[in-house]
Amino acid sequence: RVATGQGRISYLSFISKAAVSALGEYPDMNATFQHERILQWDEVNLGVAVDTPAGLIVPVIRQAEGLTVEQIADAIAQVAERARTRKLVPDDLRAGTFTISNPGSVGAVSAPAIINQPQVAILGIPVIVKKVWVVSSPEGTESVAIRPILRLAVTFDHRAIDGAYATR
After folding, report:
1. Which of 95, 87, 105 is nearest to 64 (CA)?
2. pTM of the predicted structure, to 2 decimals
3. pLDDT given for residue 168 in this prediction
4. What are the start-end ranges of the E strands in 2-136?
5. Cβ-Cβ contacts under 8 Å for 18 (sequence gap 6 or more)
6. Contacts of 143 (CB under 8 A, 6+ apart)
7. Which residues are catalytic?
8. Terminus-to-terminus CA distance in the chain, angstroms?
9. How does pLDDT run across 43-100, given as a tens digit for each residue?
């Protein structure tokens, strides 16, 4: 982890930035489903699930598509602190377009998550675990090695997105 202004750059920061970038390529995932229609959004208002003493809460980082990894790390730290100290205002919780949940931060080895409706998708991030893995060399040979493995889990609304699209 690397310290920035408020937060620390972590896997969550990098994964959040990658997800936000991918939403530009797959705009149906950055949408809401309302009254039998899909509304795609140009900006990514990233919801970040935060574990608080009062339960899980999802504050929103506005216009995340314009933020660097460092800025995302700072924004996550700021909204998480405000959530844990009960200093969020109603505007902090509205208009999310895509959510990230990080149950890996408390040791979860899988991360299927429930969609934060009316959003159409959520990304779950479990813990990174070392596993035995088959790796290929540049020459094409295979061997078995221990590698850190992360199995991201995307949950999506099939009314808005089909499985092939969500998998890409």
Report:
1. 95
2. 0.87
3. 86
4. 2-3, 8-9, 31-34, 37-40, 46-48, 50-52, 55-57, 60-61, 98-101, 121-124, 129-136
5. none
6. 134, 135, 137
7. 158, 162
8. 29
9. 999 999 999 998 999 999 999 999 999 999 999 999 999 999 999 999 999 999 999 9
